[in-house]
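Me: Here is a favour to ask of a fellow structure person. Could you put it straight underneath, so I can go through it closely?

Assistant:
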Amino acid sequence: MAEFEDPVFASIRSAAEAAERLPLGFSLEDVLEEGSARRYHRRPWAHRFGVVLVAAAILVVFFVPLPHLSLFKRLVSSPSPSPATSRSKTLPVGTRLAELRGSDTVAGDYFGAAVAINGDTAVVGAFDHDNDAGQAYVFSKTSSGWKQTAELKGSDIVAGDNFGVAVGISGTTIVVGASSYEPSFAGRAYVFTKTASGWKQVAELSGPGDRPIQEHICVAISDTTIVVGWNYPNMPSAPGVAWVYTHTATGWRRTAMLRGPSIGSFGYSVAVSGSTVIVGAISAPPAQPFGVAYVFTKTATGWRQAAELHSPDAANAFSFGSSTAVSGSTALVGSDGTAPVYVFTKTATGWRNAADLKGSDTVTGDGFGSTLAISGTTAVVGAPDSADNIGRAYLFEDTAKGWRQVAELRGTVAQGYFGSSVAMSGVTAIVGLAPTSGAASLHVGYPVSPGRGYLFQG
């Protein structure tokens, strides 16, 4: 029977025998092939090092316990990973990662009309669910994919409140807007925090005063700051407002009131990133014939207006500010589909228009820019009215050569206003598809979908 020799012993024996064949003062690494000849270079220190290395290896074999020896074998036998294999592989930009559906949603719930995402948690609003009371759904990324993990509803929500018309998330905090809080029709925002036992409501944020008119409400959150915009589309003379709430040791507290002109459109859209807040105000003739986006910055003495952003094209200024987004020193402002999405960058001298974004195949009436979001150098823009109201969304990347479109996103149903809402976190985009009850007449033969939320690789 052939005698088995441990591979480690064999390697050490071969190394020792090769070292013995070399003249004194030469090492194995000093053997250089040049045709059939061998040249030797005298390195006394190398010989000593080789002897020490062989001796150390023998000590490991005879004196290291077997469990540790197996680890040693793996270390010396495994090649170092190359940079290509050590990096995690990413999917192509625009790859659809998941399709989200509410566990109990039905056609007409407007599931997907509002979306938000942060890391491995996504939120989707369905403001007409359960007789227009509304509900929000939380989805989490698990080892087996994205799964619904919670349903949220405000503690005092009743039919007609439209809870879920706006949603936002940052870390373990979710904020949900309800635009028609009964009985006064004044809006509310509800704050939920993730605990060991699930998501719990921790605050209810009220507006500037209960008015007997229906309000438009929007929400945004960044770390410990929540911004809620209220404006009154049915009452243009009523001044809109944006409230800033800060999380303190005693809970969420209203810490600032942001105002623009005394018109109802201020607060039509809001966005926040760190110490920067942007509030959109669409046109409200005759007091304000064009839209404006106002930039506020948090200072040592409170929140102060730092800039006014205007449409670079006066012809498209009417609805400028209908959608806003900000990430660091980059802001996006949309014009409700009547113009490009404008990119503004903060410089040493103020905010400057840096680029205009357009979808590769969008046309007037597509609603391009009515929804938008940005995270770092990646932006997603919705066009829910494109392709005969089927809808599209577009991914853009800020590259060394400027902003460019990198993907066109689509849903999986033939009707439904894909792009009704969008959000971005890192390299993951979420796009809402929220069909209306009239969608069936636009696409004969297709049933009205209960709505979807789609996740894409950004």
